[in-house]
TrEMBL record:
<dbReference type="Pfam" id="PF05685">
    <property type="entry name" value="Uma2"/>
</dbReference>
<dbReference type="InterPro" id="IPR012296">
    <property type="entry name" value="Nuclease_put_TT1808"/>
</dbReference>
<dbReference type="InterPro" id="IPR011335">
    <property type="entry name" value="Restrct_endonuc-II-like"/>
</dbReference>
<protein>
    <recommendedName>
        <fullName>Putative restriction endonuclease domain-containing protein</fullName>
    </recommendedName>
</protein>
<feature type="domain" description="Putative restriction endonuclease">
    <location>
        <begin position="21"/>
        <end position="190"/>
    </location>
</feature>
<dbReference type="InterPro" id="IPR008538">
    <property type="entry name" value="Uma2"/>
</dbReference>
Length: 200
């Protein structure tokens, strides 16, 4: 995400300016049990998730675990970050990495070779997620699919890599819809992703 053109207005408010090295030191020290992302030189606290947010993320993780070979892939929740080359560390809600998992050289809590990333959109950060964070994720060479999941309607936004520098965007909605994650040979129905989260 983070690029020379990123403006302060694009980044969530708050946080403190620290070097990448200082951020890694603080995270690894365990001196603070809160969750942080590192965005263009700033250490920014990640707020707690709503119940629907948490349930959706859990349903995605469960669905992936039942479909993927654990000898080939690792599925992670929101406690481990993804390394954005030379700029940032993001905390996606769900990450799929191919084994052997590659860790960031400076931060062994951060995955450097994600294949698929899921972000459940929050009202307060969805604009940031769809712009700055999207650009960061799409700059990761190993990534093949970035999936944004609404928590207010049954709707998915998916970016799928088609060739170097070329991404296909697709938006789908409704319980009968299915998303295809070709790189890991998995299909997920929106009904499976959402369960009864949006039931009246």
């Amino acid at each position: 995400m983070a690029s020379a053109g990123t403006s302060a207005i694009d980044i969530p408010p708050g946080g403190i300016e620290v070097s990448r090295e200082e951020f890694v030191r603080r995270v690894r020290s365990g001196e603070d049990d809160r969750r942080y992302e590192y965005i263009d030189g700033r250490m920014i606290e990640v707020s707690g998730a709503s119940i629907p947010h948490g349930v959706i993320a859990t349903l995605i993780i469960t669905a992936l675990h039942t479909r993927l070979d654990s000898n080939e892939f690792l599925v992670l929740g929101g406690q481990n970050s993804v390394s954005i080359p030379e700029s940032s560390y993001f905390l996606p809600d769900v990450t799929v990495a191919r084994k052997p998992v590659e860790l960031d050289e400076a931060n062994d809590w951060s995955v450097a070779n994600p294949v698929v990333v899921f972000e459940v959109l929050s009202r307060s950060t969805k604009q940031f997620d769809r712009t700055v964070q999207r650009d960061g994720y799409l700059s990761v060479p190993s990534l093949t699919d970035l999936v944004f999941v609404s928590q207010t309607e049954m709707a998915i936004e998916q970016y799928s890599r088609r060739s170097e520098g070329e991404w296909l965007f697709n938006k789908t909605s409704g319980p009968q819809s299915v998303i295809s994650l070709d790189s890991i040979e998995v299909e997920l129905s929106l009904k499976k992703i959402y369960g009864d989260v949006l039931a009246d």
